[in-house]
Design brief:
Helix content is 40%, strand content 18%. It is an alpha/beta fold and 410 residues long. It has a 7-stranded mixed sheet, sandwiched between helices. A 4-stranded antiparallel sheet has the order 13-14-17-16, with helices on one face. The protein binds pyridoxal-5'-phosphate (PLP).
């Protein structure tokens, strides 16, 4: 990949922060946007804006066509069988809530079990905790080894005939470890349960094939993959989505709202995917997401992954030279994408992040919405995280290493 050409596409990378060139290493939180995405959204608002699926006028028809083409592009990107299996949502969080409330409340009851893992982001834990109070099912947590890898044996032992759904992140947002979802998915299906994959940290960084993963559901966020905020996807197998009740009610998700003769109001649902898209959807967001996907496809997702692995290996090698810098989790680069979790002895994670910010380097500090992972597995209150993407370079990592050296000498 021609990284300098890529960098030229991202206007924000020209910024200086505290008199230093911006180095953006917080890509696991949200990615920057290339001008192609910004221009696609501006073009939509300047020339085509109208509400979708409603009116017969030209702008509405154009907006509808652009919105539905964006759905096709997004569905193809994850190799869904059909674009009706792709529901546009606000992001990963809303996608998992949709499954927990719609599928979960309709299918789970007392004695049923949901299996999650201790490495999950809060958005793959809390929706299940909330719905478990409504339907009184049990949530089991599979263990994670101290190096941050999934304890596959524990996961498989905790699967039982009572398990109805298992939920796992494809890539951990704390360590960047890539989980063997195909293995897990096979074990889950052998028990007759469903497999939900949290793709928030995988879909932006590697080729994704929902059919090869045999995922029943896959959730992901547009803003982490060069797209805008407020848009993301929920993939679901058609036969499951068809049987699920709507998540929210409102315009567009209905076929009919009719008053019969003295029978009150009867409501019937629209077809997939619109049954799950109540109200005016995020049209410009979907169009921006499609532009981001086009951009990523132009680079090639294998190349994106290799670039990130290369940067991760380089960063870890540089960081290992500092005696006070501790790198958390496994360093087997074949099983990791572009995330390096670390800490500096004697300093809080926020102190380290603020020091880096003084030099224009943006890293994340805290527990990254994964408090159980930090407390139960890593035995830490918090950590720092450098996370890379397509526009990052080894020179930026060198600059970061210089700043770590200064921190170490404090
Ligand atoms: C693994 C994982 N799951 C879920 C989420 C939630 O994503 P969003 O806030 O875009 O809904 C994130 C965000 O960081 C994540 O890293």
């Amino acid at each position: 990949m021609d990284i300098q050409a890529i960098r030229a596409d991202f206007p924000i990378l020209k910024r200086e922060i505290n008199g230093n060139p911006l180095i953006y290493f917080d890509n696991a939180a949200t990615a920057q946007k290339p001008r192609q995405v910004i221009e696609a959204m501006t073009d939509y608002y300047e020339k085509h804006n109208g509400n979708v699926h409603r009116a017969v006028h030209t702008l509405s028809l154009e907006a509808t066509e652009m919105y539905e083409k964006s759905r096709e592009k997004t569905a193809n990107f994850i190799n869904a069988r059909d674009s009706s299996e792709l529901i546009f949502v606000r992001g990963t969080t809303e996608a998992i809530n949709l499954v927990a409330y719609s599928w979960g409340l309709a299918n789970l009851c007392k004695d049923d079990e949901v299996l999650v893992t201790l490495m999950e982001h809060h958005s793959n834990i809390v929706p299940w905790e909330i719905t478990s109070k409504l339907k009184v099912f049990t949530i089991k947590y599979a263990n994670v080894n101290s190096d941050g890898s999934l304890d596959y044996e524990d996961f498989e032992n905790k699967l039982s005939n009572k398990t109805k759904i298992a939920c796992l992140s494809h890539v951990s947002n704390v360590t960047g470890i890539i989980n063997d979802v195909e293995r897990v998915s096979k074990a889950v299906h052998e028990k007759g349960a469903l497999m939900l994959v949290d793709g928030a940290q995988s879909v932006p960084h590697m080729p994704t094939d929902v059919q090869a993963l045999d995922a029943d559901f896959l959730a992901f966020s547009g803003h982490k993959m060069l797209g805008p905020t407020g848009i993301g996807g929920l993939y679901g197998k058609k036969e499951l989505l068809e049987k699920m009740p709507p998540f929210q009610g409102g315009g567009e998700m209905i076929k009919e709202v009719a008053f019969g003769k003295g029978e009150g109001c009867t409501v019937s649902w629209n077809e997939l995917p619109w049954k799950f898209e109540a109200g005016t959807p995020n049209m410009s967001g979907a169009i921006g997401l499609a532009a981001a996907i086009k951009y990523l496809e132009g680079l090639g997702m294998e190349n994106v992954l290799n670039h990130e692995k290369d940067l991760t290996k380089y960063a870890v090698e540089r960081m290992q030279n500092f005696s006070k810098v501790i790198i958390h989790g496994c360093c087997d680069f074949s099983k990791k994408c572009g995330i390096v979790p670390f800490g500096v002895k004697g300093l809080s994670s926020h102190d380290v992040a603020l020091f880096c910010d003084n030099y224009g380097i943006m890293i994340r500090s805290g527990y990254h919405c994964a408090q159980p992972f930090h407390e139960q597995v890593l035995k830490l209150q918090s950590s720092d995280r450098a996370s890379f993407y397509v526009y990052n370079t080894k020179e930026e990592i060198d600059r970061f290493a210089d700043v770590l050296q200064e921190i170490e000498q404090l």
